[in-house]
Structures are given as structure tokens and as C-alpha cells.
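Page 42, continued from yesterday. The earlier attempt failed because a stray header line got pasted into the input along with the sequence. Redoing it now with the clean sequence only.
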Amino acid sequence: MTEQRSTEPEVTWLDPDTVQVRQPKASHWEAPFLYLLFGRERSLLIDTGATSDERVFPLRSTVERLTADWLRRNPAVFTRPYPLVVAHSHAHGDHIAGDALLRDRPGTTLVGTSPAEVIGFFGFRSWPDETVPFDLGRRVVDVIGGPGHEPSAVVFFDRRTGILFTGDTVLPAHLYVRDLAQYRATIERLIRFRDDPTAPVRELRGAHIEMSASPGVAYPPGTVEQPDEAELPLRPRILDRVLAALDELTGAVGERVVRRRFIVVIDR
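This time it went through. C-alpha cells are written below.
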């Protein structure tokens, strides 16, 4: 008898106002992580996953359920429909496919995925070198320009939890670099942000796990069973190790540098 893998998302409340949602491997091998942050005036969903089929990955019903749960615990929030902003760590398909499931949801604003749309929505005046605050209502998220993996990439810092949500920029996986100069500038920008005492970064959480628990060993692309995968959170000092790894690259397509928690790959 064949064992059926669950298509239900893996939901983890990181604190009473912050949810981590993982799309199950049974629905898509990429199994991206999504994040839902609740504020007093609106919520923010970072990424929408790798499929537009609610039957395969019930994104909309999951968002509705989590939002209803939070509103029950926060009855002083009166706005109905409670606003939701859907934004993205970057514009690759495994992070934006679920947009279609939320496009017609009442009270929902869907941020575009081009650099111009990201810059315009968040109000960047000096892209990508500027950090702009985005207020959810008694909860401010800093939006940091992050191109290099993808032109419209951003990194979100939640001041409440101290989590830097890094998408595909830094994570326990292959770090695919499309533009080495921009990617290096992004890592340097994140290091400056990390080292600012007014923005204490506690940990990094990216959008995938591809590394195994064995140092320097990754699961191949397309893997649907990862029984011994690495932990998702990364310590802030990982940024220094990524920057040091970049020093070993010339920018030639296919180059790679293997480290314990990540593998840098020059890609196009």
C-alpha cells in the first residue's frame, strides 16, 4: 500500500502574531515557506507559494483560517474586512504562483512583482540602497532592497520578533546568484543593517530548506523526501560567511562555493 503524503500546509505560530506556513512537498518539491504577520491595522503575507491550485495547496483557506483565529484573539481590531497586503520576497514562480488565489479576496492588496511596482508600492526613493518602514499598525516591518538573486528581490525585517525574512537571498540551500555585483551589494547592505544597534537582528528565515543536516551536503533539486534536512533559522553571522564565500568567485556561470549551511552558485 502506497503511503499518501499530506497536502496540508505545515503551520507554525512563531509568536501570537506571526505565522510560518510551509507548502508541503506533496504539492510541490520546492516546498517554499510563507510568512503571515498580523498588525493592528493590517496583515502582511510574504510570498504565495508555488501553485495556483487551491486543491493542491489550500492557500486561501489557510489564510482565512489563520486570520479568523487571530481576529478571535484580538477582538479590539474592528476593521472589516481586515486588510491583507500580499507582498513577495522576489518574483520567481515558486513565490508568486498563489497570487491568483488571493487576487479577488475582499480587503486584499496585491503588490506587483516588477522592480517598478515594488519600488512604487513601498515608496523607495533610492532603490536598492534605502530601507523603508512599512507599518502594519503598532508593528513596523523594514523593507530592504535585495536584488542579485532576482531584480525585484527585497528582504523584510520584523522589528517585533527580530526576524530577517530573506527569501532566496540567504537560506540553508543553494544561493543562486544571477548578478554578482548586485548580490554582493545586497549582502553588504544586510550586514550594515544587522550591525545597526537600533535594528537588532535575532535570526534569518529564508524561503526553502535544501541543505541536509550533514554539513555541506544538499538534497538535489526535485527531491520530495528530506528526512534529515537542516534547520531553517540561520544566525545573523551567516551573512559574514556568505560575503567571504563571494570572494572566491569570479562570476563565471556554474562556479560554486560549498559551506556548511549553504552553497553559493553563479547562475543565469
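Notes: The first strand starts at residue 10 and ends at 15.
Reminder to self: strip header lines before submitting.
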